[in-house]
Specification:
InterPro entries: NAD(P)-bd_dom_sf, Sc_DH/Rdtase_CS, SDR_fam. This protein is of the alpha/beta class and 301 residues long. It is 46% helix and 13% strand.
Length: 301
């Protein structure tokens, strides 16, 4: 059986949060990291760092089974930390959402997490039985806890994942497996290129018949992530903080880890402030006052 703590992270494409987490865990002593991604070419840079890589498409059952078998062979059948980091964004007002795209977002952000976790569960349970205090950490988002405009489908998928993670934590406590919500704020990564529109080689633009047409220029700047990239936390700083929070209390990790720009603000507001406070904050972020003014002018003509 592997003597080092075994960590597997999904969604580790270069420049991503998963990439930074893999490197941060690798810098820890007595840790063996498996960085995974759907496209092996996007994790080729790990070879120079001495980090092991595996191909894993979290939406493909065959790929998941193969990855589990590889980890089982390489480690003697244990997994100590599973970081479900894969995810995709979708920037679009709810009134203009493509339902097929929305369903695909939920498939990746919610159901694939459950599929991967259940597939690796035998290894995690073996780790728990050996007293290795395994941890499952799911990459949620502060958008699960606040109504950020223009990304409602993404936020809803993350809210679903947050609830799934909380329930998983309660159920898995019977087996000595710890489960953590990563309530991640704004982090400087290439996540903007990992939206459903970007995957298709398209910019996030409003449909021609959108009710937001009078404010099209403003809304589309928001869809491009203009408001969210200016104050983002450096990804390496975020990764180090998350890894420290997970490993500094073996056997008793936090239920939720709030890291990234605006994460503390959302935590504080949800705990101590009325909902109107968060509403006013996200209205400013989403330029909703300006949008409302332009819509009102157009409707008065």
């Amino acid at each position: 059986m592997e003597s080092k703590r075994v960590v597997l992270i999904t969604g580790c494409s270069q420049g991503s949060i998963g990439d930074a987490l893999a490197q941060a865990f690798h810098r820890r002593n007595r840790t063996r990291v498996f960085a995974t991604a759907r496209n092996p070419s996007k994790i080729a840079h790990f070879a120079a760092l001495g980090i092991e890589t595996l191909q894993l498409d979290v939406e493909d059952e065959g790929s998941i089974r193969t990855c589990v078998k590889e980890v089982e062979i390489l480690t003697g059948g244990v997994l100590d930390l599973l970081i479900n980091n894969s995810g995709v964004g979708y920037n679009m007002p709810l009134a203009d959402v493509d339902i097929a795209i929305a369903q695909s977002v939920f498939n990746l952000n919610v159901f694939s997490v459950l599929a991967v976790t259940n597939a690796f569960l035998p290894l995690l349970l073996r780790s728990a039985a050996s007293g290795r205090d395994p941890v499952i950490a799911n990459q949620v988002s502060i958008s699960a806890a606040t109504p950020v405009p223009w990304i409602g489908i993404y936020g809803a998928s993350k809210a679903a994942l947050a609830h799934l993670t909380d329930t998983m934590r309660v159920e898995m406590s019977c087996f000595g497996v710890h489960v953590v919500n990563l309530m991640t704020g704004m982090v400087a990564t290439n996540f903007g290129s990992n939206t459903k529109k970007a995957e298709q080689g398209e910019e996030a633009t409003l449909p021609t018949n959108s009710i937001w047409t009078p404010a099209r220029a403003v809304v589309e700047r928001c869809l491009a992530g203009e408001a969210f990239t200016q104050t983002a936390m450096p990804v390496d700083q975020y990764a180090e903080a998350v890894v420290k929070a997970i490993v500094e209390k073996p056997g008793n990790p936090p239920v939720r880890i709030w890291k990234g720009a605006s994460a503390f603000l959302v935590w504080f507001a949800r705990r101590f402030m009325p909902f109107t406070f968060l509403d006013s904050t996200v209205r400013k972020m989403g330029k909703l006052d300006e949008v409302a003014r332009l819509v009102k002018i157009a409707n008065s003509r």
